Predict the structure.
Amino acid sequence: MTRLQRLAAGTVLAGLGVGLASGASAANICFAFQDLETEFWVAGHQAITSTLTEAGHTVIERNANEDANRQLEQVRDCIAQGVDGIILIPQDGESAVTIVAEAQDADVPIAVFNRPPSDLSKGIIVVADNATIAAQAVDFVAAKALEGAAEGEVLNAILVMGDLGDPNAVGRKDGFYAAMAKHEGRFNIIEVASQWDAATALANLEAAVTANPDIDLLFTSSDFLFPTIRSVFEPRGMWKPTGEDGHVWMAGLDGDATACQLIKDGLVDATGVQDLYFEAETSLKAILAAIESGEAQPNEVIEDPGFALTTANLGEREMDMWGCVLLADGFLDK
Amino acid sequence: MKPDAPAGVMPRPEPFPAAVPRQSLGHRATGLLFSDYFVLYLSIAYFLALVPFLPTLANPANLANLLSNMWPLLVVAVGQTFVLTIAGIDLSQGAVAGLSSVFAALLLATAAPVAVLGNAPVWGLFLSENGGLLAGIPGATWLAVAAILALGALIGLANGVAVAVLRMPAFMVTLVTMIAIAAFAIWLTQSNNIRDLPANFVALGKGTLVSLYFGAAEESQVARRALHAFVTWPMIVAITVALAAHVALNRTVFGRYVFAIGMNRNAAEISGVPVRRVIVTVFVISAVCAAIASVLYTARLETGRPTLGAGNFLLDVIGATVIGGTSLFGGKAKIVWTFFGVLFFVLLSNTLNLMNLSAFHIDMVKGGVILTAATLDVMRTRLMRDRAV
Amino acid sequence: MTALLSFKALSKDWFGVPAVSDLTLEVARGSTLGLIGENGAGKSTLMNMVGGVVTPSDGEMSWKGEAYAPRSAADAAVRGIAFIHQELNLFTNLSIAENVFIDSFPKRFGMIDRTRIREDTAALLARLELDHSPETLVAELAPGERQIVEIAKALHREADLIIFDEPTTSLTPRETARLFDVIARLKAEGRTVIYISHILSDVKMLCDEVAVLRDGRLVEAGPAEVFDVGRMIRSMIGRELAGMFPARTAAPQADVVFEAEGLGQPGVLEAVSLNVRAGEVLGLFGLMGSGRSELARVIFGLDPVERGSLRLGGRELAGGPGARIAAGLAFVTENRRDEGLMLDAPVAENMSLVAVRTFGRGPLAVLDRGAHELATERMRGEIGVRAGDIARQPVKALSGGNQQKVVIGKWLMSGPRLFILDEPTRGVDVGAKYEIYALADRLAASGAGILFISSELEELIGMCDRVMVMSRGEVTAEFAAPFDRVKILAAAFREAVA
């Protein structure tokens, strides 16, 4: 996952509102996250504290500075302090399992979001489904591409894959294929490996485009590759806004600020995004509910369906996507 | 400049009298200041000053945490103490911990997801769907621990030979080792972490031998969170390491050699101290300590992590050692100092957590407290010099 | 003449033990005062008080008629007091000119005015007859020349009082002569000089006033005319010194302990052969750079040697210092601060360093602290180190003579068969010198061989059974008692003497 995505958790939480004010009476909530080093977090943690404080809750923040061992120590400190519940943004899926077990051993309910533990069976886990999210974005561009195509015409579609050692990348690839399966026979799929590396992506994409100059659709497994894609497409006259000749229908995933800008410019048509707003709110609600009911080891997997921000729903859902929130803050100008 | 020390002249055969300690109040206060236990007193004072404001600080659960956070750090810092004593520095400890962590998991994992680790260069060689190389073999945990310590010793040997025989500066040598080893560890698993470590290995990190319960005796059922780990495996390991290090440094010929090299390498060499051998041994000790700590950290987190010793790890280690009183310039060190330095550092982090400061303020306050402690130490050293020539 | 600097009932305590007590003395403007006393008599403490490094416990100082209480070394420098130390305070990586101007670079348009620095320095160097360009790096200068640069620095600051602390210890005779020239010139300019030295004949020759300290007190002071060297010594040590050297107690034995044959290392040593018999003190005389210290390092295995062989007690010597110490070699180097002592470590630990492995018990070589304490205490008594608690007192708190005794003592513990003493009495006062000679005699009497290296011909003549002379890496002559100093010097200078 990109760094921006991690940072954005806070920003999105800034939007947390009235929804949480109800629920358990005064509780101590430990909020342990793995990193913050930017101004976006200022808004985020202020919002989360003020929201919870107004509802009579107390928030204890813990910043692990990307150190899993420290995160474990911090969560233990929280437990020692007698918190009622823990919300965790883990450093990685593996250490998350240990931390969840640590909390549950001490009878403190814990919820994890933004990055799932490698074992989903313990704790309240809010997990984004990469496949569903990818499929939503790809569905949109596939439909658009087919609208303009002649009956029976086979279109060329590029899939820029991530590092398949990363389960996220695998999910996104699966989601892409799931969407494509709905249009059996209409797309000729060209796979481009990126290994989550811009240079690799550049080389492989150039080779693919040289071999297949006529591209109709592209899905990148992460938005951070759009600048790379642009540097390949632009010289070939393929970097054009919707409606202009040479436009390639493009979708991404992540929902960063660049993607938001590109969608506004009409250059990119859709991006799938993890609904961090939903994730944070769900985690908090679930924790407060567990505290309320006195449940010490709540286990539950809550799926974050995510959504696709597209040129069609831009107006209504723009501010649910963290990248657009950053964009509105003037992030790209900074 | 060296002021003349008072000394007798020839016709006066009796030795000159040592300063007679006067037991005035001021004298006792300065005695406190100059004591080996200064940092301990500082920690206690700090603790007592904060308890009224942070009642949680003194609660048993928190004290149990304090202890558990202390042990692995102590083991690494003990190793660093040896290197600092010979006026060296070991920057590679964090990387050694990272690599050891990965190796532990490569040897011991009981299962491994192909989707995550299938691309790693170690897949098939060390790791498969059925776990690590030693998975399922009886006594695997001990074999693996021995292998990790050997691995640490090997890296320490390379560091030591470069410093002692090739006479390269320790800073450069261990910096290079740090960069190379850390990258190697990440490459091995392609930056992925490995879970599924066997239970008896995990027990090394969190296994409890004695738990304390504070509460009514007739309580029929004791809640798990009311039980506080007191004597744990990491405690036993760390205290054993620290005691052994204390004996080695203060009570053996080897320890004398270490100090002699730190104080005056030329004089040591001319006096027949096996300088090279001692330097190599010191770096081996440092790396082995890092590997032992890595076992504790890895077991505690139940995850083999290539990035285990990355980030602020080294700063905590060297910071705690130096705050304890060990000199960066060599020749001045004690294991108890390091013990207290680690205690102070862990206590500091713990109290900052308990203060519920905003995440932004924590590091600022931490810096301020360390600065204050360092200033106190500088003043104390200066006072000592003024008094004792 | 008025007093430039005066002390009134000045005192300084260390640990409640007085280093300087109730000292009253005036230094007249334009005079040259010789300050003498054994190490530990309080000379350095007194000068450190003048220099603002040490604050007096009691009493007062005045400078140019005004009360004077410097708070720092810089304070003293600003008032016009300059120090020329044993260890020079120059930046060897900078040029002469930069060193002279180090604390007051003249600026022009915000830049350092290099032209002016160069010209002013050139003028100063001309005055001191130092024939070097101001641009020369100090690293390229000989020790004596560096001292002249220090003096140039003092002159540049227009210092009224220049204090020389053992300035000749590391100088060749020629450099010493030039230094004395310069001091004479400073006197002629009307500057006041305080000259501290153990070489009493120099003090006698240079100074017009002499002040003698002992045990932190002023024993006597007066015009130099009334002090002959004998009186100075008596006054310093508080008793009559029968002789400078102890009588040798035993004659050398017949068997050869150590032999070196045809040692050669290009540019350093050329076919050096020598032998030392049991109980013999073999003197090795040579000027600086004659190869005498290099020879010692080669014998001890610190420096490589290309040709030749070394035998100790009939056995070939090989390996590094460790192996040679085990074979029975001991080496007291000429530089006890850098190569002899762990200054911050307690006296006892310094004493036991060489033999420390003999205190190891069991497979882990755990120190037997009781045995260690016994042995170091016994050694302290044997070599007569004056110290408080040797297990705690750092060796740097001892006087130079006592430090040197510790260096010798640490070798005694390993029971060596050949001692190499390289300048063992450098920077050591008269009384301690005598004790060191006595130690050397005792060692010889107990059957060890001694290779006594020195640039002080007097002590070689006083102590040795034979004297060998080295020059440019070669042995140029060998003499047996009774010695003829003229012939020895001639051999060192490679001059033919009729």
